[in-house]
Write a structure and sequence with these properties.
Elements lengths: L2 H5 L3 H24 L5 H23 L1 E3 L5 E3 L2 H21 L6 H17 L1
Antiparallel strand pairs: 1-2
Length: 121
């Protein structure tokens, strides 16, 4: 699916397109689990299309306008500068509120350093 075509759609059409893609993705995943199909490339393509639709919807929400060479530019300077700052602040808050990684990574790092020290001796 072409991004330029998606950018020319209205909000309602984008929402409809997202619902259609999610429905197709569900059907393909269901067929895959039932053993009726093995088309992983179609599933991957649909997932990417869903992501493109989400991206275009978010661009419209933030007021980002894309130029001909797919480099996004901000439409209105005053409003658009505030929106990314708010989004960045939200990401920082979410990052702080996330629970720490499961203990496996920290434990494995400690274990690796302990075994490295033992080898040196």
């Amino acid at each position: 699916m072409d991004v330029e075509k998606l950018r020319n759609l209205t909000d309602a059409e984008l929402l409809h397109q997202q619902q259609e893609l999610n429905d197709q993705l569900f059907r393909l995943k269901f067929q895959l689990k039932m053993g009726q199909t093995e088309s992983l490339t179609k599933i991957r393509g649909l997932r990417k299309d869903v992501a493109r639709v989400h991206t275009v919807m978010r661009e419209k929400e933030l007021g980002i306008v894309a130029h001909g060479n797919d480099q996004p530019a901000v439409a209105a300077a005053g409003d658009a500068q505030a929106a990314p700052k708010k989004a960045a602040a939200g990401k920082k808050a979410r990052a702080k509120s996330k629970p720490a990684a499961k203990g496996k990574t920290a434990k494995s790092a400690k274990k690796k350093t302990a075994t490295a020290k033992a080898r040196k001796k």
